[in-house]
Amino acid sequence: MVVPGNANSKHDELIVFLIRRKDALTSDRRVCMTTLTTTPLAQLLDRLFEEAEATSPATSPAVAGLSSEEQARLMRSKTDYRAFYGRLKDFPLAVSRETGTLLYMLARSCGARTIVEFGTSFAISTLHLAAALRDNGGGRLITSEFEPSKVARARDNLATGGLIDLVEIREGDALQTLRVDLPETIDLVLLDGAKALYPEILSLLESRLRSGAFIVADNADHSPDYLARVRSPAGGYMSTPFGEDVELSMRIG
Questions:
Q1: Residues 126-136: pLDDT tens digits?
Q2: Contact, 81 vs 194, CB < 8 A?
C-alpha cells in the first residue's frame, strides 16, 4: 500500500544517499593521491626520468674508450671504484621507473620510518623513498654520495620536490659515512652505489636491520659475493631476483 507523500520521502532519501556516497567516493580518491603522484614531485620525476633516458654512459668519451672487459673489472673492483664512478659524475645512473615505484611501494607497505641508501647520484631513487616517508607520516632517510657535484644536484632536486627536510645526504665514501650515527633500527636499505662494495655496506648496516627489513640491491649481478651472501640459507635473509636488474631481500634473522 502506498501512503500519500511517502514516495517523495523515499525519493528525497535516495537523493541524499547518492550525494553522500558521491562525496565519500570523492574523498576516497583524494586520500588515494600520494606525494609520489602529485605536484611538485610527479612533474619533477617525469623530467628527471626523461633526462636520464636521453643519456647513456656507454656513449660518454670517459667510458667509450674502455673495453667491455675493463669496464667489468672496474665495476667489480674494491679499490678502483672511485675512479670509475668519477668518470660518470655527469650521468644520473638512475633506477628505472619500475624500480622507483617498487621502492615507494615497499617503503609504504612496511611502514618505513628509517631508510638508508648507498649511492644518491641525482636523487631519483631518494625522491621515491622520501615520498614514502612523507606518506608514512615522516621519518629519516640517510643517503651517501662521494661525488660533490652529484650531492649538489641531489640537494636541488630534493628541495624542488619538497622532500629535503626528510633526507640527510652524507658526502664522502660510504664505507666511512655509513659507519657512524645510524638509527637504532633500519626498516629499508637501497644499495645502488659501487657494486663491489655491496657486501661491505651490508655488513655496516646488518646489526641494525629489524626483522622483516627490506634490502633492495640494484644491478646486484655485478656483485656475486653479495648475491651468494643473501641467497645462502644460513645468511639470515630471504632473497629473490625481482625484474631484470634488482635483488630483493628480506631480513629474517
A1: 999 999 999 99
A2: yes
Residue 78 lies in a domain: no
Residue 71 lies in a domain: no
Domain assignment present for 45: yes
Q: Which amino acid is at 172?
A: G
Q: How far apart are CA 243 and CA 44, in angstroms?
A: 25
CATH code of the domain covering residue 49: 3.40.50.150
Supply the pTM of this predicted model.
Answer: 0.85
The three cell numbers of residue 86 are: 668519477
Pair type for strands 140-145 and 186-191: unpaired
Strand 167-171 and strand 237-242: pairing?
A: unpaired
Q: Which single residue is written with the C-alpha cell 667489480?
A: 76
CA gap 168, 180 in Å, rounded? 13
Number of structural domains in the chain: 1
Sheet with 209-218, side-by-side order of all strands = 167-171, 140-145, 114-118, 186-191, 209-218, 246-251, 237-242
Q: How far apart are CA 88 and CA 147, in angstroms?
A: 10
Residue 64 lies in a domain: no
Supply 209's cell numbers.
Answer: 636491520
Please give the span between the terminal C-alpha atoms of the chain, in angstroms, as a whole number: 70
pLDDT in tens, 144-154: 999 999 999 99
**Containing structural domain, residue 45:** 41-54+93-251
Q: What are the phi and psi torsion angles at 180 (to 5°)?
A: -130, 160
